Amino acid sequence: MFKRGFMAAVAALCAAFAGTAQAQTSAAPTLDAIRARGQLLCGIHTGVAGFALPDSRGTWQGLDVELCRGLAVAIFNDASKVRFLPLSSSTRFTALTAGEIDVLFRTSTQTMLRDTTLGLRHATTYFYDGHGFMVRANAGVQRVAEMNGATICLIQGTTNEQVTADYFRSINVPFQPVVFERTDQAAAALQAGRCDSFGTDASQLAATRATMPSPADWVVLPERFSKEPYAAYIRRGDDQWFDVVRWYTNAMIEAEEQGITRANAEEMRRTSVNPNTRRLLGVTPELGQSLRLDANWAYNAIRAVGNYGEIYERTMGPDTTVALPRGPNQIWTQGGLLYALPMR
To answer: Which residues belong to any copy of the Solute-binding protein family 3/N-terminal domain (predicted)?
Structure first.
């Protein structure tokens, strides 16, 4: 009797595991929808240099834009199969929740409450930033604590609203917030004298300053008041799509760690005996199989847009108008915080 009951329990447990595995294999509505549509819908910023900004021909350029293009290549092996949807800070998460986009690559900080209350998930960190303030160079302000009673431009729906309020409350200094929906609106108000300062992430302050008519008239104060790690966001409930976005982001960082570039990816795929390189570039197919992607998914993406470092240099490196030092966005072997999870 005991043996018969034990065997029945084992059979039931095996059936449960099999059902779970089958459900996990078939539950991939986002990737299936993207393939059926023939196009990736990627949410991006409405316009900030270095991350997402149309060039003189109207073509979107920037770090977030390139990551979207690379993801389209990983899925379709075609960088043109992506549609960019510019979204404000206040509408980005509702657009994702409503299914208007498949993924959000849009200077979006990972926070606990966003992760636990919005019905969304964030993937691997791809950019580290911190909240700062920009003021006129001739304002005589050296430290943020000196801005007693200042009027500060802020963007609605961002962590920067709370960070600013929390800091000034903590030092018992009053300030007056002026809230805008878009970065360009806040920048225009700052230049027009409606605000004494603009508070947002330091990378976006640097980008805003670089595109102003007289950048030398403005200075980004050196203090940082928060941790702002950016990641792509997707909807909860689709683990397979989460895996694709997470491991695609990792692959771009891993490629830089391994020294794989647009120029040498083909040769390394053909000649490398390193097992990690062979897995990443699809010589051995298990990584692609685990994601329901082609074996060459990462190889194709690297060949199309380059590794993370190449993308960074092209979009906000020293030869760009933003000219933002990599700092914490260097890979960990060069003193930064970027660290690809093991891809094996």
So the answer is: 39-268
pLDDT band (50, 70, 90) for residue 176? very high
Rounded to whole angstroms, how far apart are CA atoms 114 and 158? 11
Q: What is the pTM of this model?
A: 0.88
Query: Are the beta carbons of 52 and 45 closer than 8 angstroms?
Result: yes
pLDDT band at 27 (very low <50, low <70, confident <90, very high): low
Average pLDDT over residues 66-84: 98
Residue pair 147/176 in contact (Cβ under 8 Å)? The answer is: no
Strands (E), 161-203: 176-180, 197-201
Q: How far is CA 287 from CA 262, 290, 344, in A?
A: 20, 5, 7
- The arrangement of strands across the sheet holding 151-155 comes to 176-180, 151-155, 197-201, 131-136, 218-220
- Tokens standing for residue 46: 């409405």
Structure tokens at 153: 């431009």
Q: Report the phi/psi class of residue 172: left, alpha or beta, with left for phi > 0 and alpha for psi in -120 to 50.
A: left
Query: Helix or strand or coil: residue 333?
Result: helix
Strand 197-201 to strand 53-54: parallel, antiparallel, or no bridges (unpaired)? unpaired
Taking the CB of residue 53, how many other CB atoms lie within 10 A of it?
Answer: 23
* Cα 13 from Cα 4, distance rounded (Å): 14
210 neighbors 324 (Cβ within 8 angstroms): no
